[in-house]
Design a protein that fits this description.
Blueprint: H1 7-38, E1 51-52, E2 55-56, H2 58-66, H3 71-97
Helix pairs in contact: 1-2, 1-3
Amino acid sequence: MSWAPGPGLMRWALAVVTLLAWSPILSVLTAAALADVLGCRLNEGTPHPCLLAGQDIGGTLYAMFVLGWLGLLTFPFALGTALACAVLAGRALWRRFR
């Protein structure tokens, strides 16, 4: 008797890989948007002070922004998971309207 993963497990695995692959990109976008809303400087050189509710989050924004470099490694996986999700969605639509 052999064990084979079912479609539910494969979807969960795809969701986890998708989340991990897109997380550096989402981190950069979140840091940039938050810095823009708060009117703070944000670059890859050094952390700058940025106050949110009286707390300095400049170091956190800097770390989130620099994490974007990890995207160079994860971006191919992000494209692959986007393609896999598109194929799965296409198959589901094909089966539904067939």
